[in-house]
Amino acid sequence: MNILPTEKKILVLNSLVEGNSIRSTVRMTGVNKKTVMRILVEVGELAREVLDSHIVNLQSRYVEVDEIWSFVGKKQKLVTREENAQYGDQYVFVAMDAETKLVLFQISFLVFCVSTIPIAEKVADSFGDFLVRLVV
Predict the structure, then answer these.
(1) What is the 3-state secondary structure (H, E, C) of the chain?
(2) S-S: 57 plus which of 13, 27, 110, 128, CB 3.0-4.6 Å?
(3) Is residue 47 domain-resident?
């Protein structure tokens, strides 16, 4: 099994952080597309662990929850019943402290399972005993 050197992994991550697409990162670094995506997933999982362990019992005065719409594969009106679990409209909810701009968390949903309950639960977990109120 080949192991990518740490310097090459850092080069890949720097390219992605600077806003380059996965394909342009592949062209610039010479690293396989699947390897670039694997590095991205590994770093994302590590970042989630760090944030989940450190972003607790916050004392923010204002929290903004913003919704971003996108689609996976095709727009919802073109999705068949068989494809419903894999394709269609997707929503990403991002919660951030309005004063510090600290991103507290993000959650992604395909359209068929959009619900504000998990979002409210995640905000409540981040703030411990503080009262959380979502204004929709």
Answers:
(1) CCCCCHHHHHHHHHHHHCCCCHHHHHHHHCCCHHHHHHHHHHHHHHHHHHHHHHCCCCCCCCEEEEEEEEEECCCHHHCCCCCCCCCEEEEEEEEEECCCCCEEEEEEEEHHHCCCHHHHHHHHHHCCCCCCCCCC
(2) 128
(3) yes
